[in-house]
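Subject: sequence -> structure tokens, single chain

Hey, anyone have a minute? Need the predicted structure for the following. Not urgent.
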Amino acid sequence: MWTTMAQFTWVDAVDVLIVAFVAYQLLLMFKGTRALQMILGLALVYLASRIALKGGLLTVNWVLQNLLGVWFLLIIILFQPELRRALATVGLRSRLLRAFAKREEAYMIDEIVRSATSLAAKKIGAIIVLERETKLSDYVDSGAPLDARVSRRLLESIFCPGSPLHDGAVVIQGGRLAAASCLLPLTLTSDVSEGLGTRHRAAIGLTEETDAIVIVVSEEMGSVSLVQAGAISKGLDAQMLRRLLVERLGPPRGGGSGAKPREVAAPSAISG
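Reply:
Had a minute. Here:
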């Protein structure tokens, strides 16, 4: 051991630090996703194969080594969206790409605002969920996967009556429309106004559990609301909705969990 320590140079220290940094960043990127569980499983299989090799269990080691390769491919195939988002997160740390991301975010907000106000004018109901820090993978899995760029035409097509995907919510992850026809939890609280329908109750239910932002278009009133942390900003026009989205799509200031449903009077809010 002392011989090994004596041969340890600063190059070896840098080598170890780089590997540790990369491993730490990978764990941060996959935190909260099911990919992390599979990676931990992969690590356990690798550990078991090393123990089997040390113990002379050659057949067990051969099986585990082959299983390791299959498992690695399964992670890449099954968690392609998570891996893509993780790599995108790494890219967003550069100043140039952050500027590009800001531009994409502005485009996404504009498309959402235009689609919401257009749907409200036609009295077509809609519910649009924007993921923030809390992962919404379980809700995405309950719907139909899309993985498409957010656009007014696509959103209006999804919520058009008669469309096979118009029931349920669309979920936007990482600036892309991840899925449509997603099921959301309804709030169980009795403090919700009786005038609010199922979409508002689902928006409140989701934002009570997560830090997501939800936009609701009421087909009865033809109005647009924004729900966050159980609070509803009602009667929003295009300008107010755009301003709220720009303000609130920044870093979270607190979890939505535990918030009591309440109605927030938006500036110049329209009744209903």
